[in-house]
């Protein structure tokens, strides 16, 4: 299964912590992680394998949205920072909309992500 991971700047540390807490489960289930560029670099620095796409504002969110539409990505974990403005909001909304269109589970916070990851 392919899971996309994305985190806004204020949530990247939370994403790394979440993945480290679930590292063994991800490995045992053979989960392939993909991510936007900057999030992926933080995850790699923590010692996890991830395929990185472009940074979110440079098109990474759109690249992952395309994979959702193609049926390649089975889950999206996107730790959003609701208190900040983001110049790529249209891409974020497109990704979220496509998760709904294609019935792909989407978690936007650690509590929901924890429930989803345990169901894999």
Layout of helices and strands:
Elements: E1 2-7, H1 12-21, H2 23-28, E2 32-35, H3 37-45, E3 51-52, H4 60-69, E4 75-79, H5 89-101, E5 106-107, H6 110-118
Helix pairs in contact: 4-5
At a glance:
It is an enzyme of class 4 (lyase). The protein has 120 residues and is of the alpha/beta class.
In words, what does this structure look like?
There is one protein chain. Helix content is 48%, strand content 16%. The protein has 120 residues and is an alpha/beta fold. A 5-stranded parallel beta sheet has the order 3-2-1-4-5, sandwiched between helices. The mean pLDDT is 95.
Number of strands: 5
**How big a fraction of the residues is strand?**
15-25%
Helix-strand category: alpha/beta
Give the terminus-to-terminus CA distance. Answer: 9 Å
Going across the biggest sheet, name each strand in turn.
3-2-1-4-5
Percent of residues in helices comes to 40-55%
- Name the shape in a single word: globular
Average predicted confidence as pLDDT: 95
- Uncertain ranges: none
Number of helices: 6
Largest sheet, strands/sense/barrel: 5 strands, parallel
* Helix and strand sequence: EHHEHEHEHEH
Q: Which terms summarize this structure?
A:
single chain, 120 residues, 6 helices, 5 strands, globular
């Amino acid at each position: 299964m392919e899971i996309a991971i994305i985190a806004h700047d204020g949530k990247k540390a939370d994403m790394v912590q979440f993945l480290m807490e679930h590292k063994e489960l991800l490995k045992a289930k053979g989960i392939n992680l993909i991510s936007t560029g900057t999030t992926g670099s933080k995850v790699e620095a923590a010692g996890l394998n991830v395929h990185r796409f472009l940074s979110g504002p440079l098109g990474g969110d759109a690249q992952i949205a395309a994979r959702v539409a193609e049926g390649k990505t089975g889950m999206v974990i996107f730790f959003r920072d609701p208190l900040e403005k983001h110049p790529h909001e249209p891409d974020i909304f497109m990704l979220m909309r496509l998760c709904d269109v294609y019935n792909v589970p989407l978690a936007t916070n650690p509590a929901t992500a924890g429930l989803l990851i345990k169901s894999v």
